[in-house]
Amino acid sequence: MTAAATDTVVKSTTCYECDANCLFDVTIDASGRAIKVEGLPNCPRGQLQLERQYHPDHLLYPLKRIGAKGSGEFERISWEEALDTITAELQKAKAQYGAPAVGFFAGYTKEARPQLQRLAHAFGSPNYLTESGCCFSATMVAEKLTYGYKLK
């Protein structure tokens, strides 16, 4: 075992990139940085965990667009300014179009759903949505195309 290897620790964890929740091992260096992912040889999502985490464009703080849409020009702003901006835009949409014009969408992470649903109701919008409705429809189409179905 090399000196560098003794400065690392391997932690077993779970990948949450899909419903399979595969187990994998993450090698962590002495500084606490994940340096290797093992255990998901046939899963591109799992293998890309480190690239996604440490990608130079990984967002670490709020950004505000300062250039034309699509220009890629942004400036860093505080969390307070970001939340104030979101609040103002939501209130503007509500005043101009009514609360039902705003939808609140929850992705795969189930833990935040109760809070988002409560926000939607407090805002007055009946439009609380989750990925489940979208994903299941896509699954049905994929299964029909893969396994076949009756033609009328």
Question: Could you provide a short overview of the structure?
Answer:
GO terms for molecular function: iron-sulfur cluster binding; oxidoreductase activity. With 152 residues, the protein is α+β, with helices and mostly antiparallel strands. The chain has helices at 3-6, 44-47, 49-54, 79-97, 113-123, 131-147, and strands at 9-14, 23-28, 34-38, 63-65, 74-76, 104-106, 128-130.
Q: What's the topology here?
A:
Layout lengths: L2 H4 L2 E6 L8 E6 L5 E5 L5 H4 L1 H6 L8 E3 L8 E3 L2 H19 L6 E3 L6 H11 L4 E3 H17 L5
Parallel strand pairs: 6-7
Antiparallel strand pairs: 1-2, 2-3, 4-5
Pfam families: Molybdopterin (PF00384)
Protein name: Molybdopterin oxidoreductase
Keywords: Iron, Iron-sulfur, Metal-binding
The helix/strand series, from N terminus to C terminus, equals HEEEHHEEHEHEH
Strand order of the largest sheet: 1-2-3
Number of helices: 6
Low-confidence runs of at least 5 consecutive residues: none
**Total domain count:** 3
GO molecular function: iron-sulfur cluster binding; oxidoreductase activity
InterPro entries: Mopterin_OxRdtase, Prok_Mopterin_Oxidored
Protein name: Molybdopterin oxidoreductase
Keywords: Iron, Iron-sulfur, Metal-binding
